[in-house]
Amino acid sequence: MKKHRTWANLYLIVVFIILYMPIFYLMYYSFNSGGTMHNFKTFTWEWYQEVFHDDRLLIIVLNTLVIALLSAAISTVVGVMGALAIYYVKTWRVKNALLALNNVLIVSPDVIIGASFLILFTIAGVKLGFISVLLSHIAFSVPIVVLMVLPKLEEMSPTLIDAARDLGASQWHMLSKVILPFITPGVFAGFFMALTYSLDDFAVTFFVTGNGFSTLSVEIYSRARQGISLSINALSTLLFLFTALLVVGYYFISQKSSRLYGIGGRK
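Above: the chain's sequence. Below: its structure in token form.
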């Protein structure tokens, strides 16, 4: 048993090295004064200063954050409503059909989803830009939120609802005082997953961005095609650190929520 555990730990270490080595390589050379991805010369903040002095890039960062926060917030609200609707469906076949439809956007290739949204917006006459990107991000984030919230609903004991009903609680009070506190960890998980997916998305966003509007992922791709510049490394490093900060924040919030509502949904 101990030997198997040792091999399992070794396997995990190798996997993490393979996954993170390119990222750390990119981060390392973002401080290279030589301007290339080899022959590190001296340490410099030059490429980070270039990023922060680029007004166009700062506007794109703002666009990306606004899109991510708005899409995550809206998709969380819609996803929670969708999870509640699926949870209260009593017919087994209908519930499975709804879950299958919910999973379509998750399992479908991003290229197909992006092309589909492009055709839809073109037919509907929606101008490509902020609105088209926001709607697309909401659309592919809602199923993620549903999958984060629904398991928490399934864990909830029906006796909690019965007890609240017996005590005379209205539908709104049951939702706000019993159900939502119990599924809070799932709601936070859905929000942060939607936020990181929005920040990270390239394929869908590439199809639905118009002239004059861009996000970080599309901008990094465009700059990389023009040639190697270590400002791309600096920008990618900042984006990676921001995403890591979100993950750490989600971890502490979920731990706090679990302590508050982890036992029977009671505070």
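Residues 55-261 form a domain with the MetI-like fold fold (CATH 1.10.3720.10).
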